[in-house]
Design brief:
Length: 303
């Protein structure tokens, strides 16, 4: 076991930051910033794998499948965060994208010792959540070896679910266990072994790409506007109005009225304005075009 961890890039000592404890504040932060700039470059080298993962997820979600993030510690928290932001951003059902962390929700705030080493708990999670062959499980583990995550991935694969691994180490155990592995090489951490730093940043970038890419392919974005958002607060209510106005060019008053008639559904409001349809007619148009607003508008204008 020790030899495996010793060879991990994330466990190695970073020669660029060996004297960081002797730096003044500005130089210390400048060192961290220089190391952070390596992260997007490393993620960029994994675009092919990320694209394969997005396509695999899209194939599952468009047919009613679900996406499950599974992780521990920082990795688990990032997965739960990304999953929790899909409903307000893209109007998804909370069941579509789910995030789970070793140790349960209490581990989001407090470290639960030893839970990440429980392989059987990862296996049980897959069974308890009713994962099927229609679903995709995304295991997130910086080391590529977290037993809880590997247990979940292997159990998911055994029942025919799609499996994706996200790690920041090459040639890891999760790479052997999953269908698609995304492994940006961010190099040794600023503080040796502290994978909440560059590794965590890389994981967050990858998760952003996975869910955003899938949601765009599912038709939940018009141009670059989040037209499926849920106006659950004042900011999102205001954004809904601005989106309707941006797409249609109507006045604020007209946008507000259309949204009222559309029960604050941005797509419906836009389609009503663009086509002259009422709310129920616009909703039916969207259903016929699988929720794709641009296709629905074009179908009317091309007639």
């Amino acid at each position: 076991m020790t030899s495996y961890f010793a060879q991990l890039t994330t466990e190695k000592i970073n020669p660029s930051t060996q004297s960081i404890d002797e730096c003044d504040t500005r130089d210390m932060l400048a060192l961290m910033n220089r190391e952070d700039q390596l992260v997007p470059v490393a993620v960029g080298k994994e675009i092919e794998s990320i694209a394969a993962a997005v396509d695999r997820l899209y194939d599952a979600l468009k047919d009613g499948g679900r996406m499950f993030y599974v992780g521990a510690g920082t990795s688990g928290r990032l997965g739960v965060l990304d999953a929790s932001e899909c409903p307000p951003t893209f109007g998804t059902d909370p069941e579509m994208v789910q995030g789970y962390i070793a140790g349960g929700d209490i581990a989001l705030r407090t470290a639960v010792e030893g839970c990440e080493d429980d392989t059987e708990a990862g296996e049980r999670l897959i069974d308890e959540k009713g994962v099927t062959s229609r679903d995709v499980v995304v295991g997130i583990t910086a080391s590529g070896s977290t037993p809880f995550v590997l247990g979940a991935i292997r159990r998911a694969k055994s029942i025919g679910a799609g499996t994706i691994g996200i790690t920041t180490n090459q040639n890891s155990r999760i790479e052997e266990a999953c269908d698609i592995c995304i492994a940006p090489n961010v190099g040794p951490e600023v503080v040796a072994g502290s994978t909440r730093l560059k590794s965590g940043t890389a994981q967050k970038l990858v998760l952003n790409m996975l869910t955003t890419g899938v949601m765009i392919k599912l038709g939940k974005v018009y141009n670059n506007l989040m037209v499926d958002l849920k106006a659950s607060n004042v900011k999102l209510h205001d954004r809904s109005i601005r989106i309707v106005r941006t797409v249609t060019g109507v006045s604020e008053q007209q946008a507000v009225e259309a949204l009222r008639q559309a029960n604050m559904q941005v797509k419906i409001a836009i389609l009503m304005i663009e086509t002259g349809a009422d709310a129920s007619e616009a909703e039916e148009m969207l259903r016929l075009h699988q929720g794709r607003l641009k296709a629905a508008i074009r179908s009317i204008k091309d007639v």
